[in-house]
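User: Um, what's this?
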Amino acid sequence: MNTKETLIKSLDLQPHPEGGYYKETYRSQGNIAEECLSDAYNGSRSHATGIYFLLTSDNFSAFHKINQDEMWHFYDGASILLHIILKEGVYSQHIIGRNILAGEVPQLVVKGGDWFAAEVIGVDTFSFVGCTVSPGFDFKDFVLPSRKELVALFPEHTDVITRLTHH
């Protein structure tokens, strides 16, 4: 049986700035030239990247955004509650897990430019997922706003933003 400690150690997962633990597992050899990307990008990007991501119930993945679409894939542990705020301010939540009959989905795409945060459903447990990003992830595209900045953009979502931001 997997435990969060076993996964962190065996897979050499490292702390992620948004919360949780991660390890890059794939980066395509090919690149997309900057002139072929939208103005949102500065420099070329890999075609795609993939990571392992482990989130524990005593932490959360804080609201952030990237330029790219990000596909979440469920692997093990408890289900994840993913919160999304679209650029237009529309809020939604989705459960990523394996209980299909209860409406959970084993994979979900967050569109590039949308704000999102995640938390584990349950106490004293973890969720182990993978994330695939295309064009490939680069920390230059990663925006982790302060609570104040995000509340200023979406005051109607102050409660969830306050709960799922680190500062």
